[in-house]
Each structure stands twice: as C-alpha cells, then as structure tokens.
C-alpha cells in the first residue's frame, strides 16, 4: 500500500459549538464545584490540603473500583511517572504497543528503550504471544494500551507480567467505563493511567488520573508527590492536578456514564450497523470478555479480497464528504523519526548508556517488519472519533456509509 507519510489528523476539524451545547454540557454542576474551590482560598493540592482534588480522587477510585487514585495534570505525565516508579531507565526495556506512541515516549523520557509488541489483527490490541516473545532479561515494564474504548486481553497480560516479575502499566486514556470480565480496566496491573484531555470521554480540558491497588506503591508515590522542597526518594515530578481542574473533573464524573451510555455507545452502534452487511469493511472484534466504552469507531478495509480498490473508496469518501479517517497514524511508532533515528538518545552521542539497540551488542532494530500485523493493519484502519459526534450526525454518517458501500459494489 501507499507509503506516503502524512497524517490526516487535522483534516477532520470539529464544530465545537454543538459539543458545548449538546454533548459535553459543561454547566451548573461544574460552576457549583468551581465556586466551592474559589471560596476555599486554596487552588493546589501540593501539600495535601486540596479538598476538591481529594474528593475527585476518591470518587474516581470508587467509579473504577480501585483502592487509590492520584490526580495528575495529564495522562502523559502519569505514564512518565509510572515508568519512573517501575525502575526502568538506561539499559532497560519497556514493552509497548506500536499503534499509539505515548507508551514509547514515556519510556524514552527515562532513557529506557521502547520495544514494540505486535497487536491482534481483529481487536487492534496487544497480542499476549508477541508480548511474551519480546520479553528479555532487560524488560522492566510493560505499557499496554486499551485502544479506543476496548480492553486488551489484560488478565493474560497481567499474568505474564506477574510470572516474570515485570511492572505492568495500563494506558486507560480511552477507557473510562471499559471492563474485562466485568472488572474495570486499570485494576489489573500495578498502575492504570486515565486521560481527561478535551477529546476523551471525561474532560477537564487537560488532566489525568493514576490508579493503583498496591498500597505500598501508592504510599511511595504519594509521599514523593507531596515533597515540599527536599528531593524525593526517587525521580518524581510535580505533575499534580489543580483544584480548579478537579472541580470540573468531579462534575464531569457525575455525567460520564450518561454521556458514554447515551451518546458514545449509541453512535458506535449506529456506525457498526452501517457496515454490518458489508463483506469488505470489517467491524472491530469485541471479545465476549470485553465491555466496550464508546470512544472511537473503527473498522478495516478488506476490499482487495473482493476486487475493490482502496484508492477509489478514498476518492469517493472525499467526494461524499463522509468524515472517515484513514490509517490513523498510518505507520507504527518505530517508523517515525523520533524512534527510528533515536532522536532522544542522540543529544549525547558518546554517552555510555546510549540506546543499546544502536550498539553492536544488540540485534534489535526499529525496522520495517518488526510488527507485521500492525504494519498491515494500520494501512487498513478506518476510524471516526465519536467524542463530538451527535446521534443525528452519526445517523447521517451511517447513511452516507451505506451509500458509499452501494456505489463501490455497482
Ligand atoms: C492512548 C493514549 N495515552 C496517553 C495519552 C496522553 O493523554 P494526555 O493528553 O492526557 O497527556 C493519549 C492522548 O491522546 C492517548 O490517546
């Protein structure tokens, strides 16, 4: 398939006016909690006296069934801190999946080496067999992404990590309300990291939450977090959430089930229905153990097996202005210069702890063929971000999808 390296992420800009009025509904509840914060005279939880942050943390922990939660300025910070507390650093490897880049980036923050496991063709989530094949004596942590609202095979992955003594970080940025065997994601590993950025199921503009059921780990992280001047016991960062953000978070938490169940899950179903009789647009497989939480809709192009041309489909899609996104990032993370050219390690070329994959001692290379399933899959992915898509808009989109299917089959 065509190897043009441009992302079409910016092509589908969103009309926010509708979102503000109809979908996200920032309003009275947010204002009530914000007013409480302003009246309290304290806008930070830096010394542990931020009442709103603590209320949000307790409510969020309860919502996802975790013992503890720590509010963060965003999910990327949560992932970076998770890598730090895992002990990964120079000379260690962190296994990530290659469709999104956040796990790999978090590893590089601590000069650990991202190693990419392949995903499953039908679910797009990490393949436990590929994870196993990528474990080496240097593996310190695994960052598994529950992609686009759907849990990875997280019980199997957690068991592998427990057996091998590997720290497990769950990237739950897309998965508030998602579960595996009735257990909310974020509870299977050592840490689970959620995102509240504007384009997620729960929004505080920017924000995140790290959850854990490990009390010892929680105490260590919280103590490090509340340091007030002296250096922490391990490399830890002031990635806190402010009280103002927590007020919006607490209000949004009260609404999130309603938004997910009554909008995102419905729009997901509407788009799935549009392709249900089509042999060459294949819906994402949701295993029976997974409870999905609507976030992005996705399917794969399988047209060549039916003598159909993808380029023709893309051209028609443009003409009909449907709003589909092709390929997501188009290529796995290791195909991008940041990883491929080892940008992060290059700053000090003579450093003795330079990325081991670029020394003669290692035969691991970021080359095409590293994760063949992902490489093929990413070219075929067709997606729609559901966050700002209303039900009437999804219905219109579904009609157009049915229309393009007919046109292709003439
Ligand atoms: C899978 C995944 N992880 C982490 C992040 C980072 O989230 P944040 O923007 O809150 O830092 C994102 C953001 O889109 C994401 O999609």
What are the key terms here?
single chain; 410 residues; alpha/beta; Aspartate Aminotransferase, domain 2; seven-stranded mixed sheet; four-stranded antiparallel sheet; 39% helix; disordered N terminus; binds pyridoxal-5'-phosphate
CATH class of the domain at 16-253: Alpha Beta
Give the rounded overall mean pLDDT: 89
Main structural class:
alpha/beta
CATH architecture of the domain at 16-253: 3-Layer(aba) Sandwich
Give the uncertain stretches in residue-range form.
Answer: 1-14
Distance between the termini: 24 Å
- How do the strands of the widest beta sheet line up side by side? 1-9-8-5-4-2-3
List the helices and strands and how they pair.
Elements: H1 16-23, H2 28-40, H3 51-64, E1 68-72, H4 75-86, E2 93-96, H5 102-109, E3 113-116, H6 128-134, E4 139-145, H7 154-164, E5 167-171, E6 179-180, E7 183-184, E8 191-195, E9 208-212, H8 215-225, H9 243-274, E10 281-283, E11 290-291, E12 296-301, H10 310-320, E13 325-326, H11 337-340, H12 372-380, E14 381-385, H13 391-409
Parallel strand pairs: 2-3, 2-4, 4-5, 5-8
Antiparallel strand pairs: 1-9, 6-7, 6-11, 8-9, 10-12, 12-14, 13-14
Helix pairs in contact: 2-9, 3-9, 4-5, 9-13
Residues 74-76, 100, 102, 145, 171, 173-174, 195, 197, 208 line the site of pyridoxal-5'-phosphate.
